[in-house]
Write a structure and sequence with these properties.
The chain is α/β, with parallel strands linked by helices. The chain has 9 helices and 14 strands.
Length: 311
C-alpha cells in the first residue's frame, strides 16, 4: 500500500510538490485548497500527465474537505498569502498565522498521526503556530527552510566554480531570511572545503546572495515568488521521512537547549526518518558562527513574541 501525503495549498509550491511526489511515486497525493475547483483541476491535470510520466500515484483535489486527509502519513502545508514585492516576511505574520491555525486544527483532527512539513512564510514563526495548534510531538513538526537555503548556496557555489551541483554540499543554519547563517567551513566541493577553492571575497558575495535568494527571484518575477526550489526542498524532506532514510538535512526544528537555544524553532542539521526528526545534530561552531546563530534566533524570538502579542 502506497503512502499518503496531503498538501494544503494548491498554489505554485503545493501543486509542484504534488507533481514531484507523484512522479517519484513516493505517495498518493491529496491537494486541499480554499479556491473552488482549483485543487480538483490541478489534480486532474496531473493525473492526465501520469501515462506520459509513467507513474501510478493517485492524485485527488478537494476544496476545504479535510476529511480527504484522513490517514495521511505526511502533510505539507503551503497555505497562506504570498510574499509580494516590498513585503517583508514580518508583514505576513498576522494573516498567515490565522490561516495556519485554521489549517492545523483541521489536519490534527483528520490526520492525528501525521508528520507536518511547514512551508508557509514567515516559516520559523509558522512552525510555532503549527506546533501549538496541533499539539503534536516536536519531532512531528518540521520546517522546510535549510534545505532550500542550502540548495541555493550549493547552486551558487557550482556556478562560481563551474562544477557539477552533485559535487557540492553546504549547510545553512538559522532563520529563513536575512539572518540565516551559511557556513562556508562546512560547505564543500567533492569533499574540499570551499574556503580552499575561492577567495574570502567571493565566498562572502555568495553568502550574501544566498541570504537574498528569495528576494532576488521575487524581484525578477515581480508578481510571484520562488516555487520550483521550495517544492523540491519539501519533497526531499518528505522522501527522507517516507522512506525512513535517516538522512541528515538542515531543517527548522524545535530546540530545547541545543546550540544554547530554548523553546524555539530554528534551522539546524537533523536526522529525518519515519518518526520525523529522529535526532538533532549539534556541530561545533566558531565564536563568530555561534554569535550569528544567536542573532538569527533572536530575530525568530521577536516574531514569536509578536505572535503572542497578536493573540
Amino acid at each position: 500500500m502506497r503512502k499518503k501525503v496531503t498538501i494544503v495549498g494548491a498554489g505554485n509550491v503545493g501543486a509542484t510538490a504534488a507533481m514531484r511526489l507523484a512522479e517519484k511515486e513516493l505517495a498518493d497525493v491529496v491537494l486541499i485548497d480554499v479556491l473552488e475547483g482549483v485543487p480538483a483541476g490541478k489534480a486532474l491535470d496531473l493525473a492526465e500527465a501520469a501515462p506520459i510520466e509513467s507513474h501510478d500515484s493517485r492524485i485527488t483535489g478537494v476544496t476545504n474537505d479535510y476529511s480527504a486527509a484522513k490517514d495521511s502519513d505526511l502533510v505539507i502545508v503551503t497555505a497562506g498569502i504570498p510574499r509580494k514585492p516590498g513585503m517583508s516576511r514580518d508583514d505576513l505574520l498576522s494573516t498567515n498565522a490565522g490561516i495556519m491555525k485554521s489549517v492545523i486544527k483541521e489536519i490534527s483532527t483528520a490526520a492525528p498521526n501525521s508528520i507536518l512539513i511547514i512551508v508557509s512564510n514567515p516559516l520559523d514563526a509558522m512552525c510555532h503556530v503549527a506546533f501549538e495548534a496541533s499539539g503534536f510531538d516536536k519531532k512531528r513538526v518540521i520546517g522546510m527552510a535549510g534545505v532550500l537555503d542550502s540548495a541555493r548556496f550549493r547552486a551558487f557555489i557550482a556556478m562560481e566554480l563551474n562544477v557539477s551541483v552533485e559535487n557540492t554540499h553546504a549547510f545553512v543554519l538559522g532563520a529563513h531570511g536575512d539572518t540565516m547563517v551559511p557556513l562556508p567551513r562546512y560547505s564543500t566541493v567533492a569533499g574540499i572545503p570551499i574556503t580552499e577553492l575561492m577567495s574570502a571575497e567571493r565566498i562572502e558575495a555568495i553568502v550574501e546572495r544566498t541570504r537574498k535568494g528569495g528576494g532576488e527571484i521575487l524581484g525578477l518575477m515581480k508578481t510571484a515568488s520562488a516555487f520550483y526550489a521550495p517544492s523540491s526542498g519539501a519533497v526531499e524532506m518528505a522522501e527522507a521521512i517516507l522512506k525512513d532514510k535517516k538522512k541528515i538535512l538542515p531543517c527548522v526544528a524545535y530546540l530545547q537547549g541545543e546550540y544554547g537555544i530554548n523553546d524555539l524553532f530554528i534551522g539546524v542539521p537533523v536526522k529525518l526518518g519515519s518518526a520525523g526528526i529522529e535526532e538533532i545534530i549539534e556541530i561545533r561552531l566558531t565564536e563568530e558562527e555561534n554569535e550569528a546563530l544567536q542573532r538569527s534566533a533572536g530575530a525568530v524570538q521577536g516574531l514569536v513574541d509578536d505572535l503572542k502579542r497578536l493573540g
